[in-house]
Amino acid sequence: MVALLTAAALSMAFSLFLTPVFVRLFRKLKWGQFIRDDGPQSHHAKRGTATMGGIVIIVGTLFGYFTAMLITGDRITMSALLVLFMMVGLGVVGFIDDFMKTRKQRSLGLGGWAKVLGQVIVATAFAIMAMNFPNQAGITPASTAISFTRDLPINFLLIAPAIPLIGVILYLIWTSFLVAAASNGVNVTDGLDGLATGASILAIGSYVIIGFWQSNQSCFSPNLAEAVRYKCYDVRDPLDLAIVAAAISGALIGFLWWNTSPAQIFLGDTGSLALGGALAALAILTHTELLLVFIGGLFVIETGSVIVQRAYFKITHGKRIFRMSPIHHHFELKGWAEVTVVVRFWIVGGLFVAAGVGTFYLEWITR
Question: In terms of pTM, does the model score above 0.85?
Answer without folding.
Answer: yes
